[in-house]
Structures are given as structure tokens and as C-alpha cells.
């Protein structure tokens, strides 16, 4: 039997936030951003809500009909690159990313500098020279993992990318998820994103298939 998936809208916001909060409570990156378990349980959902609001406004959220998993996709246009800048850094992007990272920290957890730091690091590592689809987050609630829900959520968007000739990008936040993305055609880039005194993330890129 197939997995019933629909596109989420503003009415699904609280459900999406709950799914993401439950799915990432035990994630190593979330554990680094919110190192205290009690504080994480009290605050983590605010970060998930900020992410959900951004994607509801600018991208798309695909939701498993029974509310057990969701995927957040953001279309990223190609950005102009200054001649003196590194190839992956668009002109003016560093300042804009810094402002957004600071705003995110102030909205979610003002005393937690790790929120701003990880936002800056992810923005700096994000390829910007080609338009692509960005799989920002994919979350499956505990108890429903290992049933193929992640693949079911990702595959239709990748099929559209193939039809439209669009690459896709993501950051794997745990080593166990890297093989899953590799089976879907993603390949790890030649650099990792190593959080200070924290876990490693794997930026991954997928070329469209003909």
C-alpha cells in the first residue's frame, strides 16, 4: 500500500511543528544546539516553528496524511557571485545570512548563541551558484521510523527535479542517514560541516537524472 501524502498549508502548522519537534529531539545537531535536555524540551519547538513558518511562506511542506512525517523543501535560485568572492558565496550573502541568523536567535532563544552560529555556518556552506531544491528538513516521529516514509516523501520531489533539470541539496545530520540519501542519488560534497565541539554534518548534492 502506498503512503498518502499531501501538501501542508497554514492550517497544518501546529501539526508540522509537533512532528519536527518529536522527530529531532534526539538528533545530534538538535542536542548540540540545545545541550540541556530540559531546556531542549521546553525550547526546541520554537526553532522548528520558525523553520516551518519560513517554508510555509516560501517553499512547500509535504506531510504524510496520518501526521507521522513531513519534509520541508525550499526553492533556492542561483545568486550572482562577486568576482573576488569564493565560488559558492554570492555577493552580499554573508551580511544577509548574518542578519537572519541573529534574528532567528532573538526570536527563538535570545541567550543561545549556538542558534545563530549554526545558521551562519549552514548559510556559508550552502552552494549558491546554481538554482536547486533544498531539502531543509525531513522528520519522522519516533515509532514510525524505518518504514520508508522518508523515501516516500522525498522521491516525488526528486522526480520533478529530474523532469525540470534541477539539482537538489541537503545536509545530513547523522551518519546513519547518509546511505539513505545516497540511494536516492545524493553524493556527499568534498567538505563536511563540523560544529565546534559538536557533531558533524554532511552537505550532499544531487544532479538531476536524465
From TrEMBL:
Family annotation (InterPro entries): Acyl_CoA_acyltransferase, GNAT_dom, Trichothecene_AcTrans
SUPFAM superfamilies in alphabetical order: Acyl-CoA N-acyltransferases (Nat)
Listed CDD domains: NAT_SF (cd04301)
Organism domain of life: Bacteria
Molecular-function GO terms, alphabetical: acyltransferase activity, transferring groups other than amino-acyl groups
Record domain N-acetyltransferase: where: 76-209
Keywords per UniProt: Transferase
Stored Pfam families: Acetyltransf_1 (PF00583)
Protein name (Swiss-Prot/TrEMBL): Acetyltransferase (GNAT) family protein
Amino acid at each position: 500500500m502506498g503512503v498518502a501524502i499531501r501538501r501542508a498549508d497554514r492550517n497544518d502548522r501546529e501539526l508540522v511543528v509537533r512532528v519536527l519537534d518529536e522527530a529531532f529531539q534526539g538528533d545530534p545537531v538538535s542536542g548540540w544546539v540545545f545541550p540541556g535536555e530540559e531546556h531542549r524540551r521546553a525550547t526546541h519547538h520554537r526553532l522548528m516553528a520558525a523553520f516551518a513558518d519560513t517554508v510555509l511562506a516560501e517553499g512547500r511542506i509535504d506531510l504524510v496524511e496520518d501526521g507521522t512525517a513531513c519534509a520541508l523543501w525550499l526553492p533556492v535560485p542561483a545568486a550572482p557571485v562577486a568576482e573576488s568572492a569564493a565560488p559558492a558565496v554570492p555577493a552580499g550573502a554573508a551580511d544577509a545570512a548574518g542578519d537572519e541568523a541573529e534574528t532567528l536567535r532573538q526570536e527563538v532563544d535570545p541567550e543561545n548563541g549556538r542558534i545563530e552560529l549554526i545558521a551562519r555556518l549552514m548559510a556559508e556552506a550552502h552552494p549558491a551558484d546554481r538554482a536547486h531544491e533544498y531539502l531543509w528538513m525531513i522528520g519522522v516521529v519516533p515509532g514510525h521510523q524505518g518504514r520508508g516514509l522518508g523515501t516516500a516523501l522525498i522521491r516525488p520531489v526528486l522526480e520533478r527535479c529530474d523532469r525540470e533539470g534541477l539539482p537538489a541539496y541537503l545536509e545530513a545530520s547523522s551518519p546513519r542517514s547518509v546511505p539513505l540519501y545516497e540511494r536516492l542519488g545524493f553524493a556527499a560534497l568534498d567538505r563536511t560541516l563540523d560544529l565546534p565541539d559538536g557533531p558533524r554534518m554532511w552537505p550532499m548534492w544531487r544532479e538531476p537524472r536524465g
